[in-house]
Amino acid sequence: MQIPSRLRLLSLKAAAAAGLAVAIASLPQSGSARGPESVADISEGLQETVVNISTTQTVKGIQEQDPQATPSPKDSPFEEFFDDFFDSPEGDGMPRRVSSLGSGFVYDSSGLIVTNNHVIEGADEIVVNFTDGRKLKVTEVLGHDPKTDLALLKVEPDHPLKAVTFGNSAKMRVGDWVMAIGNPFGLGGTLTLGIISATKRDINAGPYDDFIQTDAAINRGNSGGPLFNMDGEVIGVNTAIISPTGGSIGIGFAVPSNTALTIIDQLKQYGETRRGWLGVHVQRVTEEIAESLGMEETHGALVAKVMPGSPAEAAGIQSGDVILDFDGQEVDTMRSLPRLVAATTIGKAVTISLLRKREPMKLEVTVGRLPESEEVEDVSEAPAEERIEPERERVLGLAIAPLTAQLRDEYGIDNAVDGVIILEVEPGSQAEEKDVKVGDVIVEVTQETVNSPQEVLSRIDAVKKSGRKSVLLLISDGKGELSFVALPLS
After folding, report:
1. Catalytic residue, candidates 76, 118, 325, 476
2. Contact between 227 and 216 (Cβ < 8 Å)
3. 171-199, pLDDT tens digit by residue?
4. How far is it, in rounded angstroms, from Cα 364 to Cα 153?
5. Is 281 assigned a catalytic role?
6. For residue 276, which of 16, 203, 374, 401 sits 20 to 30 Å off, Cα-Cα?
7. Active site residue 118
8. Which residues pair with 329 in a beta bridge?
9. Rounded to two decimals, what is the model's pTM?
10. Is 108 within any annotated ligand binding site?
11. Are 379 and 478 in contact (CB under 8 A)?
């Protein structure tokens, strides 16, 4: 619709009166000027590979639900970022049928469909709607993976479907053009265009976050649809958005195709994911930790704990090691390591480069399979005895004492934990800011075990004389969970 020039002028005056900055683009000098190059030739035929996913499930009436519950599937890792539409149940406490809508795409012409796990999780019935009007009921959920929010479905078409072609997500760069195609609400397909605004994005949705970030609009109902490059290849699976309103604000996320293909292939073959496993608990290398270890850069993954019976233990990896390289790939951050290990073939022997007590070394480890769950042992409490106040030493905002049997019982410290117990944490101290707590146990100081307050003081004095600005402590909680803490000496 053409807007009269007088109305345009009034609107600009109104904007100026409201204190808004108004910029007027220069007008083209001739009628031959064109907009951005069309993507019609690229997108033609792609929309028929994208489908609408419609699900229904029976839920309890609203009066019987948790008042904090949201319409998204329970425990969905993307709950706070992306909720699909649900029909609101009546508030009479009776079970209701609710519906959810999302998108997906044809992975294999025989009838394999990819979508998000949160789109189909908990569904009693799943129907795939195609752009030509066909509706096919899902005969089997071949597998799903909550950690990457992917699911693989099977339908029985009467003739081969048109499937997508996958591209290499590792080749995509910030600034590359992409298309997001979805089929929300059975409208028959939507297409939005934008660029990649970031790669390797971590949104704290799961342990393997490695998202492509795009400003191509991904609105409600588009979850599970494909993100295409300008060759018409899928380089991502649209999964989540950040939005205060539920609509696109230009921050959307897609699972990279290289990650998705690995997961989809495993779901197709095994009906489950089979991830590699090293068996270490790691933490971030902060500036203070790097300085205390003599490292010039804050990179790598600091090993806080090695799991008994794990591949890491068999290879000789130790608590305090900093893993810098895994199978020829740099471990630039702590979160890089779980992704690299998980993507490694089970049973493969790989070389790990690490730093141990300031000395570089290499180890070979055979990657195992990630267990489905880990056993957690309960800590039983012994009966209380007459309290004897222990002698305390004070250092770095802490009051420390020998770990006696009485203190072990009082603070519920596992028998496998040895060291020096912390009985006070000075308010406002660096130790308090770094979440050191009363009842924690100092296991090591500068990667040397300590069993008395005097040993702690001696190690700290040695660090001061060396000229370093901070000291590295290995601290255990009562159950044996370990973490490194670097405290300044000033």
Report:
1. 118
2. yes
3. 999 999 999 988 776 556 788 899 999 99
4. 39
5. no
6. 203
7. yes
8. 326
9. 0.63
10. no
11. yes
